[in-house]
Amino acid sequence: GAVVSQHPSWVICKSGTSVKIECRSLDFQATTMFWYRQFPKQSLMLMATSNEGSKATYEQGVEKDKFLINHASLTLSTLTVTSAHPEDSSFYICSANTQGLGEQYFGPGTRLTVT
Amino acid sequence: AQRVTQPEKLLSVFKGAPVELKCNYSYSGSPELFWYVQYSRQRLQLLLRHISRESIKGFTADLNKGETSFHLKKPFAQEEDSAMYYCAPVVYNFGNEKLTFGTGTRLTIIP
Fold first, then answer.
1. Residue B43 to residue A106, Cβ atoms within 8 A
2. pLDDT tens column, B14-24
3. Among the partner residues A97, A102, A108, nearest to B49 by beta-carbon distance
4. What is the rounded distance in angstroms from the CA atom of residue B3 to the CA atom of residue B33?
5. Chain B nearest-CA residue for A9
């Protein structure tokens, strides 16, 4: 149980376009979903925390207008990278948990390459 | 500033030897701490949490509040332990909780 999926697993897009990444909790309802970014050989950096039905809470330094997060249901959160640039190329990982447990279940990640 | 430190980026240990991955934190109060592991080509997954005081895959971690440490230990390393290990305290903020990951330690078990 407690499986989180991400789609797509990898995507290549041209500079200036937008790309949407989906994160789904397959067998549980996720009250909170998290979006991370991971650069090569570095740790995960939390970008934002997303609660169903409310606005996402962004970490300091993360542009909310560039990284649009929508958490429309208890099983789906989306991250849209708007007007992507090559420096946005990275590995994006989502996770989900149920209230109060602390443990997070991670998705497999999405590799974004902006050309 | 609150932070978590994993001083070793790389750690190589012979099979059968003891393993210790270090983690120090500087959070005030009583943090809740986790160790997450990422095996090659797999997603990040929970290894253990300090409040359960359990042993998973032979690993244990004791929270030492005096030393503000949460080192991960295993008495006899196995080849399948080779992975990336992250120490992660949970930070609670107005009803939300979030994990803050350390820089990680890549453990390589030498056959």
1. yes
2. 999 999 999 99
3. A102
4. 12
5. B43
For residue A14, what pLDDT is reported? 96
Distance from CA of B51 to the nearest CA of A (A): 11
Given a contact cutoff of 8 angstroms between Cβ atoms, the answer to whether B61 and B25 are in contact is no
Which H or E run includes A80? Answer: strand A76-81
In which residue are the tokens 């509040």 written? B65
Rounded to a whole number of angstroms, the distance from the CA of A42 to the nearest CA of chain B is: 7
Contact yes or no for A108 and B34 at CB 8 A: no
Closest among A71, A2, A9, A65 to A35, alpha carbons compared: A71
Residue B104: its chain A contacts at CB < 8 A?
Answer: 43
For residue B2, what pLDDT is reported?
66
State the nearest Cα–Cα gap between A114 and chain B, in angstroms: 22
Output helix, strand, coil percentages for chain A, rounded to the nearest 5. Answer: 5, 50, 45
Stretches in chain B below the pLDDT threshold 70: 1-2, 29-30, 93-96
Q: What gap in Å lies between CA B90 and CA A101, rounded to an integer?
A: 11
Q: CA–CA distance from B76 to each of A82, A105, B57, B58, B85 (Å)?
A: 48, 28, 11, 8, 17
Percent of chain A whose pLDDT exceeds 90: 70
Cα atoms found within 13 Å of the Cα of residue B5, Cβ hemisphere only:
10
pLDDT at A61 over 80: yes
